[in-house]
């Protein structure tokens, strides 16, 4: 790809899906455009586009970090993304079990609750 933005947008679409990215782009205004560019270039164009580890592994790491840091609002989005990254529900559960041991049972418990709700919405049997 010509630059990190283009690479990031391609990776972002592959992981999160066109519908999610299209909604984010439609909601972008002048105020948050620099932020959207930063995450597209940095998170998606650099980190998620690197092939040192698999996207399945990145999903598991991301979900564990979101839960461990209490950033629960992004967990459903990243659970939905596992359909594109190859992380199975059992992988996600293992990530959250690590959260329980290393960051706290309440954080893992809430993350598991969100995962169960999201999988139910997706029609994924767990």
UniProtKB/TrEMBL annotation:
Coiled-coil region list: none
Organism: Rhodalgimonas zhirmunskyi
The Carboxymuconolactone decarboxylase-like domain, residue ranges: 35-116
Keyword vocabulary terms for this entry: Lyase
Transmembrane segments: none
Originating gene: pcaC
InterPro entries: 4CMD/NDH-1_regulator, AhpD-like, CMD-like, Decarb_PcaC
Enzyme class, spelled out: lyase
Tree of life domain: Bacteria
One Pfam family per UniProt: CMD
SUPFAM superfamilies: AhpD-like
EC identifiers of the protein: 4.1.1.44
Name of protein: 4-carboxymuconolactone decarboxylase
GO molecular-function terms, A-Z: 4-carboxymuconolactone decarboxylase activity; peroxiredoxin activity
